[in-house]
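Input record (one chain):
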Amino acid sequence: MDKLTLQGSYFIPRTVHAKISYELWEGVDLYSGFDWQNQRWFRAGREDDDDRIFYYEKKVGMGLQCEIVDNCKIDFQGGYGFDRFFFEGEEYDDRGDNRISFSDGFFLGTQVNFRF
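The corresponding structure, as predicted from the sequence alone:
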């Protein structure tokens, strides 16, 4: 069980991160996870100063993370994104107003991380 890692976090009200990873070899990890994240911005020229643009997204995925050198990792990942939408309003309860929804779909990605 020394090679198995569980991570999880929850930030009020709607940000969730869960990840399980297994060390295949030293510096090489296989992982799977779930993310429910959001972002928000103030739109220039808005009529109501309290209105913001919100983006919500949920993702499940898997990946392989390899340490290239000390403090540098490369991450190959893929998965499925769903329940993705933008809306304009003051809070999450306004998610039906001025809403733009995106269809569910698969994603692939590569990421390089440097740590100092």
